[in-house]
Amino acid sequence: MLILSFPEYHEQAQRLAYSLAVPLDKIYLHHFPDGESLLNLPSALAEHVLICRSLNQPNDKLIELLLCARTLKQKGVQRLTLVAPYLCYMRQDFASHPGEVVSQGIIGELLAGLFDDVITVDPHLHRISRLSQAVPVDNAIALTASELIARFLNQQFDHAILLGPDAESEQWVAAIAGESGFNYGVAEKIRQGDKQVQIVLPELKFKGQTVIIIDDMASTGRTLAKATNMLHKAGAKEIYAVVTHALFCGDAEEYIRQSGVTKIWSTDSISHTSASIYLDKLLARAVEDIL
Ligand code: R5P
Q1: Is the separation of the CB atoms in 247 and 220 below 8 Å?
Q2: How far is the C-alpha of 150 from the C-alpha of 164, rounded, in Å?
Q3: From the CA of 149, how far away is ligand 1's center (Å)?
Q4: CA 261 distance to own-chain centroid
Q5: Which long-range contacts (CB under 8 A, 24 or more apart) does 93-96 make?
Q6: What is the mean pLDDT of residues 11-34?
Q7: Which of 194, 195, 214, 215 to mutate to test the pocket of ligand 1 (most atoms within 8 A of CB)?
Q8: Is the N or the C terminus of the chain less surrounded, counting Cβ atoms within 10 Å?
Q9: Average pLDDT value over all residues in the chain
Q10: How many C-beta neighbours within 10 Å does residue 200 have?
Q11: Would you say the CB of residue 226 lies under 6 angstroms from ligand 1?
Q12: What's the pTM value of the predicted model, to 2 decimals?
């Protein structure tokens, strides 16, 4: 087996390669002035190749995966596994307006046509229960970082309340609460636009408490910032945030910090300064399980 990593995920891929005791090599990328991508793959390959790349900012990355996967198969690679801790386009799973394209299954099928296995972490599956419904490959593996996050929080806090900022976050906050032993509640969120959200807190006593907001991702950061504002108003003593995927688009990080959150943590699914919870062992176990 060989692991190949794209540049922005190389550090994490090194940890995965170390955990699996498998060789690692790099894919070199060049972006032409017109936006096209040129890939350069190593010449020494293996029968089974694992491609590592998280799919935040996904559009160019998807084209590059297509070029890479097709070339590897042409060169005789028998099995291709995609390790994409953040899996893109999973949120768009129904048309909320007439004419809207439902991307989840389309992108899922694209990936299923390129890879024999797809391994990801905490994908945003809301209206379906299994990843294989969106990505129809034999091994469509959706891992969860809940146990790692719970263990991390237990090391930081003796007592805290966990808050899921919307109904969709309940699956993660409930799991982390179960693992950590912390109490939890789930807020109601109304999204009025990409950067406008309203949040109604659940009926819990937040006054004087340490509260940790849990979500699968922060994109514009508006959800975390609004939840933090509401918790301040409710008298919370300190507010922290943990997300699996630190997308942090545009001014997200600054915007969340200005809302008065004490600290933000994330997994290393995406390279970011908040990444404190490493996924390599979780991913390595999943790779070993499919062999
Ligand atoms: C949506 O349901 C997700 O779980 C996140 O809450 C959402 O994507 C966060 O987005 P933003 O950071 O843009 O508010």
Answers
A1: no
A2: 14
A3: 18
A4: 21
A5: 93/125, 93/126, 93/127, 93/128, 93/134, 94/127
A6: 98
A7: 215
A8: C
A9: 97
A10: 9
A11: no
A12: 0.96
Q: Is 166 in the pocket of ligand 1 (CB under 6 A)?
A: yes
From ligand 1's centre to the CA of 223, what distance in Å? 6
Nearest to 1 by CA among 48, 68, 52, 51: 48
Q: What is the number of other CB atoms lying within 10 angstroms of the CB of residue 258?
A: 12
Read off the pLDDT of residues 206-258 as tens digits, 9 standing for 90 and up. Answer: 999 999 999 999 999 999 999 999 999 999 999 999 999 999 999 999 999 99
Q: Evaluate whether 185 touches 204 at the Cβ level (below 8 Å).
A: yes
* Mutation choice for ligand 1 from 144, 190, 217, CB with most ligand atoms inside 8 A: 217
Q: Is 241 in the pocket of ligand 1 (CB under 6 A)?
A: no
**pLDDT tens digits along 154-170:** 999 999 999 999 999 99
Q: Which amino acid is at 233?
A: K
For the chain, how are helix, strand and coil distributed in percent, rounded to 5? 35, 25, 40
* Whether 48 contacts 2, CB under 8 Å: yes
Q: Which residues contact 240 (CB under 8 A, 6 or more apart)?
A: 160, 210, 211, 212, 213, 261, 262, 263, 264, 265
Cα–Cα distances in Å, from 88 out to 42, 55, 79, 253, 263? 26, 5, 22, 20, 26
